[in-house]
Amino acid sequence: MATYAVGDPQGCFEPLQRLLEEVGFDPGRDRLWCVGDLVNRGPASLEVLRFFHSLGERAVCVLGNHDLHLLAIAADVGETLRARDTLDDVLRAPDREPLLTWLRHRPLAHHDESLGFTLVHAGLPPQWDVSAALTRAAELERVLQGPEHRAYFAAMYGDTPRRWSEDLEGWERLRFLTNCFTRIRYVDRDGQLELKSKGPPGTQAKGLVPWFEVPDRRSAGSRIVFGHWSTLQLHTRVPPRHRVYPLDSGCVWHGALTALRLDDERTFRVPCP
Prior knowledge:
This protein is an alpha/beta fold. The protein is built from nine helices and twelve strands. It is 31% helix and 17% strand. α6 crosses α8. β9 (223-226), α9 (230-235) and β10 form a beta-alpha-beta unit. It starts with a strand and ends with a strand. The protein has one domain (3-182, 217-271): Metallo-dependent phosphatases (Purple Acid Phosphatase, chain A, domain 2, 4-Layer Sandwich). The strands form three sheets. It has a five-stranded mixed β-sheet with strand order 3-2-1-11-12, covered by helices on one side.
């Protein structure tokens, strides 16, 4: 049995199948982790959703920002499709409701003690260790999976607050948690989120650093698998000392789709035409 983690599919079903064939993935024996963003921008979001749904307990998928965007649109709280969204196939599917219910019940973070890996979509703020991150993820998951999920989607969008505090309450607290798990790339030296910059390290404004480079971040001793940041994987080699594994290699931008075999940290990649 092997466990593979795969980068953001974003509706790229055919490259996903080629990658799984490349690694010899056996759904009856192996496990498959996904860093989130199953849907959007690619041509086959519905097929990707159906595939991961079909794997049942063999798959662990955390939620990404595009997944939450799909759920917000489906919840009919005022959010509408954007120009580059490719979500119509999901929204019009006959099996839309079971697929979206399944998606809404995915975690924001996952940790496997036996493998020694933690899975998130985007990253963690420097104030959290893995234990704190799992506690905060469970807090957000309870709202997503409960009767207040439509109200949450209506309040989800926004870039503030920028810094973690235990005193945060209500929708502001949940919005901060959402932005950490699904949108974080850069922070300043005080650990405040900066959510506008998307380029690779070296292109950011003065005073900003990638979330995993903050001195004394509390999750520094943990191995963290994440996606979301395609320019990081495409243009930057992250030093091994950070113990982070970025897997978004920009498949939807004609880059590649990447998988990491967690058992031996071997990387696999297929091009995305």
